[in-house]
TrEMBL record:
Organism: Talaromyces proteolyticus
Sequence similarity: Belongs to the short-chain dehydrogenases/reductases (SDR) family.
Name the UniProt record assigns to this protein: Hydroxybutyrate dehydrogenase
This protein's record includes keyword Ion transport: no
GO MF annotations, alphabetized: oxidoreductase activity
Length: 286
């Protein structure tokens, strides 16, 4: 069987970096991307990965040109992993429209633009797999995480629509929903804090930063294992062999709990309010 060709975004650290190492270890080819690749992806030089500078927050037209450049490296791309992302930390009242848009440009629009640019190629060859790295934040809101959470909620909807649109072309898509893993996601280099101007939030903001610092480095999830399981799913091998391709999949016991609790709470609400909810239908004539 010919080696698969992968395109992975956000490879400077964390899941993206692990994808590169593990894809190469299985004998496949990988195009590792990231912004400021000359410096941030320098550690991947000599691994066998093709390295491409790509800031997914640039215009859709420029993203498309970069994807064309990626396609020329090996002549094809079989699997896309939309992994790049970062966190804007702010209470909603202090979250400016500029910061929210900046977050969405990377965490949502960037992924959509890369996917849109690659879809014509996958449609033409009538095959392809697209993965999005979502989060348990796509199921649960947390204080000071409004920009990040809303982006992950948006990805959930986008992926669910995409799945229904591209399956007829032989293309499959999924979204993974990790809990907390020991990556750089909660490092202060990957979280953007900007001074707020509402004094009422001063203590709140201090508490948020203390929480982030306490969690960072103590996350329960192992990123090496997570990437191994994601590769299993995307290739139908290992622990995923024989299982149906999942439309979404939590990773980590904390991610599992978030999803299960949300489902149970939603079912409880629907049962308690069913008569009230149903009472809004148009009354049927006898």
């Amino acid at each position: 069987m010919a080696p698969l060709v992968w395109l992975v975004t956000g490879c400077s650290s964390g899941f993206g970096e692990q994808f590169v190492y593990q894809i190469l270890a299985r004998g496949d080819k990988v195009i590792a991307t990231g912004r400021n690749a000359a410096t941030k992806l320098k550690h991947l030089e000599g691994t066998g990965a093709a390295i491409l500078d790509l800031d997914i927050s640039i215009s859709p037209e420029k993203v498309a040109l970069k994807v064309d450049e990626a396609l020329k490296i090996y002549g094809s791309i079989d699997i896309l992993v939309n992994n790049a992302g970062y966190i804007e930390s702010s209470a909603i009242e202090e979250l400016t429209p500029e910061r929210l848009l900046r977050s969405f440009n990377t965490n949502v629009f960037g992924h959509v633009n890369v996917t849109r640019a690659l879809l014509p190629h996958m449609r033409e060859k009538k095959s392809g797999t697209i993965a999005f790295i979502g989060s348990q934040a796509g199921w649960k809101g947390d204080p000071s995480a409004g920009a990040y959470v809303s982006g992950k909620f948006a990805l959930e909807g986008i992926v669910e629509c995409l799945q229904k649109e591209v399956s007829m072309f032989g293309i499959q898509a999924t979204i993974f929903e990790p809990g907390f893993f020991r990556t750089q996601a909660l490092s202060q280099q990957n979280i953007r804090h900007e001074p707020g101007n509402i004094s009422a939030y001063e203590e709140f903001n201090k508490a948020v930063m203390q929480y982030e610092t306490a969690v960072y480095g103590n996350e329960p999830g192992d990123p090496v294992k997570a990437v191994s399981r994601m590769i299993d799913v995307l290739t139908g091998t290992g622990m995923a062999a024989g299982k149906p391709f999942p439309p979404r999949l939590p990773l980590g016991t904390d991610g599992l709990k978030v999803m299960r609790d949300k489902c149970q709470d939603t079912l409880k609400l629907l049962n308690e309010w069913e008569d009230f909810i149903s009472s809004t239908d148009v009354t049927k004539e006898e």
